[in-house]
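Running this now, will post back.
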Amino acid sequence: MDIPEFEDDDQTIENLVNAGIDYVETQCNLQLGISDYEWYTSCLPYEIPDTFYVRSITSIESVASGGPTIINPSNYEFIRMSKRRCCIQWNNDYSNNATSFLVKFKAGFEEGYVPEALLMAVRAFIGDGYVNREDPIREKRTLVDKLISPFVLPYV
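Update: finished.
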């Protein structure tokens, strides 16, 4: 990283950028980029409380005593219900008696679509960490916490 006028602080700033991103992702239980996830469930169809900002279903496997079986994508549909809710629904002519399923999916924010409040939180974390290097204890609710609060899902 090469930041003009901050030659001696480049590593500090880079560390703060990484820490800010990690803090926001950890507190909000989400990724600021697209990632792959696996989720086990005991039933489908199912409404997904969109804790990950699901983008697409990669595959669904029925898990039975005989081993996993990949379900043909033409047998289910991924439906976006709102900005933070989606569901997986079987097509009308399909049924499956499996007792559990492994759903593989892609989730997170695509480049250019990260909410501005989350970007501002990362920037605030960086600025606060740069200015207050000697104060590692966070005793009160900061600007960062206020910016990410709408994205924090307490039930995760």
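The helical segments are 10-28, 116-131, 143-148. More later if anyone needs it.
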